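step: validate -> pass
step: tokenize input -> pass
step: predict -> running
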Amino acid sequence: MHTHERYMQLALTLGRRGQGNCWPNPAVGCVIVNQGRIVGRGWTQPGGRPHAEPMALAQAAEAARGATAYVSLEPCSHYGKTPPCAQALIDAGVARVVAAIEDSDPRVSGHGFAMLRAAQIEVITGVCADQAAQDHAGFFLKTEQGRPFVTLKLANSFDGRIATSTGESKWITGPEARRVVHAMRARHDAVMVGGGTARVDDPSLTVRDLGVARQPVRVVISRHLDLPLMGQLARSAREIPLWICHGAGADADRSKAWSELGATLLPCGTDGLQLDASDVLQQLGQAGLTRVFCEGGSGLAASLLKQDLVDELIGFTAGVTLGGDGLASIGGLAYEALAQAPRFELCGTRPVGGDVLHRWRRA
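step: predict -> pass
step: emit ->
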């Protein structure tokens, strides 16, 4: 592996530490190297500030002068709530900046590199660009399309069921798989479920037993706000963010009750008898989310797939069969031809406890 690639892989790994913690900002990593020695490491901090570059520069101190900075995204060039990172690199006296990928935010795109070059700093781009594009996909989607990246996770029986004919669903997969799901939740800005799942399962949708300080936002899609006011979500709404996406005609008393419990209400457009999944994601993007982890149920999963809004599929498959009278993991899609169904590309499979984890990406 080329030296530039080796250090960039480290910068990307550091950047991923910020995933789920720094929205609406991108999760960036930075490594500063002087004469073959790493003198500074940084990543975007919780809440999105400080950015990765000032964190690494503070660690490097005087050793940043004449050094090479490896950054997983183009350094910002605009004055926001903090001065631009491109200026911080210039002021620190670095000799070279190696960046994975250009920022697609029009306020930055290309300007950060131009600032560095104008200050006589050598700029190299495109190192590990494919990996960086994947890591920053949510930030880019929010900038370019106004919506977050969507991971759809389903835990199924071997024959694609999420419950028996009587509705029993706890637990199809084992404790090891559930622990991995908690780690996945932690790397997303929000965990999302449909109203039916919230009513039937009474979930808390939190990350547990991993020592996580900052919980993801809990998002529930409920057109009529008909969710249990005494459930786990209601009881914890003041402590952990709970956002409910609902339709315009939702009952005023229910709206008032949920607001008083501490929930944030997001009115969304409708598509026939249900909320429009595309508008739901636009509202979540406007609210700052870049990465959403959807855990079903079957109706919400079908809505997202039908509108081609799923970027990554994650399946946990258990060695149990529940039969045709069990609840299908995805609701009706009414495809008449196989060609209508979107194809995903396999990224990897591995055993997790007694189950199989498989990941698929948008082709």
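step: describe -> The chain has twelve helices and 18 strands.
step: cleanup -> pass
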